[in-house]
Design brief:
The complex is a heterodimer of chains A (126) and B (134). Chain A is α/β, with parallel strands linked by helices and 126 residues long. Chain A is built from four helices and six strands, in the order ββαββαβαβα. In chain A, strands 1, 2, 3, 4, 5 and 6 form a six-stranded mixed beta sheet that branches. The two termini of chain B are 26 Å apart. Classes of the chains: A alpha/beta (126), B alpha+beta (134).
């Protein structure tokens, strides 16, 4: 089946300024939640701060949201810095889901990738 | 009498890969209708959550199908997500947050959840369509 443009997605993992950055590209839902979780788990093993970049994410569902919540909890448990970039460029559905669930105020979000990386440099106090 | 302008029916395996397929089929239907992009995104989210619920809860052995019907009716969108599983049984190991139905209810104008006579569960959602020009 030919890939529709909107079906293109991916997960990039890189290290930026000593911070592990997991970037979710395109759409992510139950079908990619396990892969997203695995990449986040690997990043958390380093003990460095973790930034999850949703600035190029066009869609997430509650399965992915659960992965993000778990990631924040684990980072907090280990005293690692953590932040999620939810930018103006993030898809409407990303903002909508966070608002509808009230998690926009519970998750450690930053309005840009750069600000999320900077915030993740500071360990979360235990 | 209702006027059905466009209609899409899709059946996918009740497994995670089927969820984005349904969403993209739905977007294909909506691409031919003058609808605000944010409304399309909202509908995509609600229908995704309904499909995910079916994948996660419908079939204990993980085998089965989900049937989704989307109809553009009298300027609104009716979407039905149907499975033939054992009903909405909870899972302690659910990969979700348990917010699927509240999200659907917040987005759809109305939502009905029923148990059809031949078994399974049907979630029927009604969405108002706001045009991009509004």
């Amino acid at each position: 089946m030919a890939n529709l443009p909107s079906m293109t997605n991916g997960i990039d993992v890189e290290r930026v300024d000593g911070i592990d950055v997991v970037t979710l590209l395109g759409e992510h839902d139950l079908s990619t939640a396990t892969d997203v979780s695995r990449q986040i788990d690997l990043a958390l093993e380093s003990g460095s701060g973790l930034a999850i970049d949703l600035s190029q994410t066009t869609f997430i569902d509650s399965a992915v949201l659960r992965v993000l919540i778990t990631a924040q909890e684990r980072a907090n448990e280990h005293g690692a810095g953590f932040a999620i970039a939810v930018a103006d460029s993030s898809g409407h559905g990303v903002h909508r889901l966070l608002t509808l669930t009230g998690l926009d105020s519970r998750l450690s979000t930053q309005p840009s990738r750069a600000e999320a990386i900077a915030a993740a440099a500071f360990p979360t106090p235990r | 009498m209702e006027t059905v302008s466009e209609r899409v029916e899709i059946e996918v395996a009740a497994a995670a890969p089927g969820v984005p397929l349904v969403r993209h089929a739905l977007r294909g239907l909506l691409s031919g209708i003058d609808v605000d992009d944010d409304v399309i995104a909202d509908i995509a989210l609600a229908v995704t959550e309904a499909c995910t619920n079916a994948v996660v809860h419908a079939y204990r052995d993980g085998r089965g199908t989900i049937q989704v019907t989307a109809s553009h009716v009298d300027g609104a969108l009716e979407v039905a997500v149907r499975d033939h599983g054992g009903g909405m049984s909870p899972r302690v190991d659910t990969p979700g947050l348990g917010v699927g139905l509240p999200v659907i209810a917040a987005i759809a104008e109305s939502v009905e959840i029923g148990s059809p006579p031949d078994g399974g569960t049907e979630v029927r959602m009604h969405f108002a369509l706001r045009s991009a020009a509004e």
